[in-house]
Design goal:
This is Probable multidrug resistance protein NorM. GO terms for molecular function: antiporter activity; xenobiotic transmembrane transporter activity. It comes from Schaedlerella arabinosiphila. One of its GO terms (biological process) is monoatomic ion transport. Belongs to the multi antimicrobial extrusion (MATE) (TC 2.A.66.1) family. With about 450 residues, the chain is an all-alpha fold. The protein has one domain. Helix content is about 85%, strand content about 0%. The protein contains 16 helices and no strands. Helix 5 runs parallel beside helix 8. The longest helix has about 40 residues.
Length: about 450
């Protein structure tokens, strides 16, 4: 195996060098939906903007199932890589590919069959319903592409290569922008064109990274002896993948419940939330990816038995995440209005006002979610994904409960939805820290 090990060298430099391509790559991945939102908002009107923007929460929830399975498998690959158990890792690659691929097919069938029930559950307004359905009907065809990209990206990152996934995402993001402009402005395909551009770009990234990995990384190719079920390995992969999948799904299901509550406030708040949440996600994406890179670092060193290096890595990661989070919070707070104007016509003053309020309330506390992502990554890496799930339940449970309670108070209203977010982050951070102090796992 000729890839990059995170078990030696300067910890901070190694983490940042490994994390940087992941940060850039995930920022590019967000461009899939952000570009749709920007172009739709400028050329197709607020109803189309609400439809495309609101679809983002649903798609994030659905793809989080596959992402969680891939992330859990990636932890297994990283631990095997740290232990230098390469045959065991290859057997795991085969079993996880079949398992997650099957889940992708079932998920695709389920969402097509239940599309109208899903939209009704989300309380989508009548003037948005048809547009959102048209958009989702096309977007759902990209679930298989999402699986392919995330599986092979997780595999490459597990063995220390975070550059190749970035390259394929970069190509996909650029093609998505070009196809958006072509389908929406030139071909007048409306919201369906935005979805078609995204799906074509996703398949380019998914199939491309799969073919590239098989050609350029012969050490990851499977042999006949790897193509069999080994109960012990399968159990380990399933436990990590399933709990990570549940954690990711719970996190995004909570966001989906918030989306349903937001929708009940009408098209203006719905459109404002749709835009602001894109900016929000884009803003804290660096700390999320730093948490994922930290997870790979911990998993490799956990496999190698380097407990002191893990402790040093924790100290370094906490300082770095705080710096990232506080810096981005300051920028978003100051430039909230300018960020909204990127996506929204200046004449839509109500949408802009609501979006700015959201960003200035939630965006002041990105360092809290930075710490939470480190907790998620750490507990996955040391084979305690159940704790990541507990922290997610605390964070999202608090957010959902407070959002529904506070927004029902007439003089608080929708502001209560925004304020519930950092409170949930804070409580989950405290729980993650206290558990770490009580149970040193390394």
């Amino acid at each position: 195996m000729n890839q990059s090990s995170l078990t030696t060298g300067n910890i901070t430099k190694s983490l940042l060098r490994f994390a940087f391509p992941m940060m850039v790559g995930n920022l590019l991945q967000q461009l899939y939906n952000i570009v749709d939102t920007l172009i739709v908002g400028q050329f197709l009107g607020k109803e189309a903007l609400a439809a495309v923007g609101s679809s983002y929460s649903l798609m994030t929830f659905l793809t989080s199932i596959l992402l969680g399975l891939c992330m859990g498998s990636g932890v297994c690959f990283s631990i095997c890589f740290g232990k230098r158990e390469y045959d065991r890792m290859k057997s795991g690659i085969f079993m996880s590919f079949v398992m997650i691929g099957g889940a992708a097919l079932l998920l695709s069938a389920a969402v097509f069959a239940g599309m109208d029930l899903i939209l009704k559950a989300l309380q989508v307004p009548g003037d948005v319903y048809g547009l959102m359905r048209d958009y989702l009907w096309v977007i759902f065809w990209g679930i298989a592409a999402t699986f392919l990209y995330n599986f092979f990206a997780s595999l490459l990152r597990a063995v220390g290569n975070s550059v190749v996934p970035l390259l394929f995402l970069g190509i996909a993001a650029l093609s998505n922008i070009g196809l958006d402009l072509l389908f929406i402005i030139c071909f007048h395909r409306g919201v369906r064109g935005a979805a078609e551009a995204t799906v074509l770009s996703q398949y380019g990234a998914g199939v491309g990274i799969m073919v590239y990995t098989m050609i350029q990384f012969p050490q990851l190719r499977l042999k006949r002896e790897n193509l069999k079920w080994q109960p012990e390995i399968l159990k380990e992969i399933f436990q990590l993948s399933f709990l990570t999948c549940i954690q990711q799904s719970v996190m995004n299901f909570g966001i989906l419940m918030i989306q349903g509550l937001v929708n009940s406030f009408g098209a203006v708040v719905m459109a404002a939330f749709s835009v602001a949440v894109k900016i929000d996600t884009f803003a804290y994406m660096p700390v999320q990816d730093f948490g994922n890179a930290f997870s790979t670092f911990v998993a490799q060193n956990y496999g190698a038995g380097k407990t002191e290096r893990i402790r040093e890595g924790i100290r370094s990661a906490v300082k770095t995440a705080f710096f990232f989070g506080a810096s981005v919070s300051a920028l978003v707070f100051v430039f909230a209005r300018q960020l909204m104007l990127i996506f929204v016509n200046p004449r839509e003053t109500e949408i802009i006002r609501e979006g700015v309020e959201y960003l200035r309330i939630e965006g002041s506390f990105y360092y809290l979610i930075g710490f939470l992502f480190l907790c998620y990554g750490y507990y996955r890496a040391v084979k305690r994904p159940g704790m990541s799930l507990v922290l997610t339940v605390i964070s999202l449970g608090t957010r959902v409960a407070l959002a529904y309670i506070l927004s029902a108070v007439p003089w608080i209203g929708v502001t209560g939805i925004w304020a519930s977010v950092p409170i949930g982050w804070l409580l989950a951070d405290l729980a993650g820290y206290l558990y770490y102090r009580r149970a040193r796992i390394e």
